[in-house]
């Protein structure tokens, strides 16, 4: 089916319905090559800078790029930083801005699905109360498959499913979240599937809003913001910490999810997916991290994974200390299985050569440390300013970019010291004054930068305690998985040049007519 058959001028619809689900073991499909439809609107990311009166754009993720626009492309962006697709050249430019992370869809302006074909898949084990609460929040009349993952009291789960008109799949043995979701996925016959965990409550707008993203034919998955569900037990100090800094809450900034970006992974506690983008589904060998693996595999095949924080799904966080601590450690144990499958994506930190050298100089804590680090930053700013030649105030912009890069490098190093590498840090602190000083600075800076008293409702002392326990639990899980896997891959940061290859675009001729043939990364 061609683009013209699907999108008549002036119309917007959900992207084409997928081909039939692939056979087990078949090569998973890649996205359709249809351009963005006429009327599709995007807005520049809040961190994207418009330079020289609209002649260039600077921003993007995971690599910062300078994109020079041709005279034909400049009028496509309005004063409020919005671009609306009107022709193929505009579609190609919009697609490129989306792919580089320079812009995001204006989801409120995308068409609402009229009668989307969606199936909800809910894995559950011995949570009849939570299941009842979730199914009550699902839109009436929706097709729902409840997969009972070998509950100890299956009759209670079956009664809830029957009461809400859901189809029940009862597994004889416990397969874990991945296996349970796959059991439901194999029964899905609709173009779209919603995976939602039983301890989640959906807002009425969450799924309909996420479905709007599939107007882009390259979007394979879309996820909402995961917020804290307020319950009778969520007001203790662990519960308040989770409200402020849950591992599942990815923030308020929309994003194209990809490794190394500011949103590098997404949870499937709630996710809407195009059926064909899932291939054979989750890796059933993984009990933790299976959602990250699923998303990264889709991204590797060319699908887009969108994070949409304008809508949310409320998750019942663990608030009992032992249960909470154990779960944080379990999250860490997913590091090594992910490292085996995605060795370049799972690094705990990604640093540029210059920032690595600057950080190492500062960690040495010698008289020459600060001057050397400052010299490296100055040389980097000079190099970037040369790349920005031809723009207004290249030196000022280069200094700002270098400063942001230095702060990011120091932040990642602090996380390595206090979180991923804390066992090694603890040993070094026993024998080294410099190690103790570095650990203290990292721990204090982390709390100063991260603490939000008004959001957490938690005093700094208990927030700091919870933060350090969070790091200890997660780091312990990472080290355990690395030792069990006999590989340090999950513990090793990645040092890579900030210069990236020019990305492919949907239509090179259209893209060249809309933007310059070169984009510079910084």
From TrEMBL:
Family matches, as NCBIfam families: mycofact_glyco
InterPro entries noted in UniProt: Glyco_trans_2-like, MftF, Nucleotide-diphossugar_trans
Domain Glycosyltransferase 2-like positions: 121-228
Keyword Transferase applies: yes
Source species, domain of life: Bacteria
A Pfam family reported for this protein in Swiss-Prot or TrEMBL: Glycos_transf_2
Listed Pro residues bias regions: 17-34
Family: Belongs to the glycosyltransferase 2 family.
Compositionally biased intervals (Low complexity): 506-522
Record has Glycosyltransferase as a keyword: yes
Name of the protein in question: Mycofactocin biosynthesis glycosyltransferase MftF
UniProt keyword list: Glycosyltransferase, Transferase
The protein's annotated pathway: Cell wall biogenesis; cell wall polysaccharide biosynthesis
Region of interest: Disordered: 1-34, 494-522
